[in-house]
Specification:
Layout: H1 12-29, H2 39-48, H3 52-55, H4 61-75, E1 82-89, E2 92-98
Antiparallel strand pairs: 1-2
């Protein structure tokens, strides 16, 4: 949802930045874990690919996160999993999470 052209293969940096933003947004939507964007990682992606932000819908990570938080709250309000790891392993997305405590 944060890529400007989702039908096009993103650069490794754009894919990693999109996953990082999605990871932060998911956890922010459930009030779990740190909610700030790891700007150091985004700067590293940008240093590796100066055209990074041209592949994303916005160069404002907070705006992208807000859009994803709203999407998660609308379509997955009951999913309270806390994302621990989210990244690329080869050409596959790797995600690890913890289940919410039982009530």
């Amino acid at each position: 949802m944060v890529l400007k052209d989702p039908a096009r293969q993103p650069s490794a940096e754009a894919a990693s930045a999109a996953l990082l933003i999605a990871h932060v947004a998911w956890n922010r939507a459930i009030d779990a874990g740190p909610s700030r964007v790891p700007s150091l990682l985004l700067r590293q992606f940008e240093a590796s690919n100066r055209l990074l932000w041209q592949e994303l819908k916005s160069d404002n990570p907070e705006a992208l996160i807000s859009e994803l938080v709203a999407y998660k709250q609308l379509y997955y309000p009951g999913d309270r999993r806390h994302l621990i790891v989210c990244g690329m392993v080869g050409d596959k997305v790797h995600v690890e999470w913890t289940e919410p405590p039982a009530n």
